[in-house]
Amino acid sequence: MIKPVILAVISFLSFFALSLKAQTTATPIGLPEKTYPWAKKQLMEPADLNAMLTATNDSSLVIFNIGAVEDIKGASHIGAVNNATNLEAFNKQVTNISKSTQIVIYCGCCPFTKCPNIQPAFLTLKNMGFTNIKVLNLPINLKTNWIAKGYPLEK
User: Fold this and answer.
1) Potential cystine with 152: which of 73, 99, 117, 146 (Cβ 3.0-4.6 Å)?
2) Contact yes or no for 43/32 (Cβ under 8 A)
């Protein structure tokens, strides 16, 4: 009688251990594994944007600060777009831009996974028909992922 109970306990523990391992070896928490409206290819690394800014004064690149942080060189400051007034201002600013223009949006006020501003701005652009939207990948914040690397800010 003891053997079946021991086997049952061993089976249960084995199943539990395997399911726990499956949970911890699944896709790691990161971007954009959460339910974000952008594809991974739409994330732009800070080093790539910095290279673009230092290599050329490309007028076809438009950068929007849609948060409450410092402005990256060349960025238009909108402010936190989780505020309806700022989101409306953002909407007005992009109205006359060509739909194929490369637009980079960033916030950087908090860890990317908690940002209340990126999704509303991204969805606004997407719903307006923009086809070349990039989200600046600032997983920690602007200070850590941009400023500390010596990348340029607006003066």
Assistant:
1) 73
2) yes
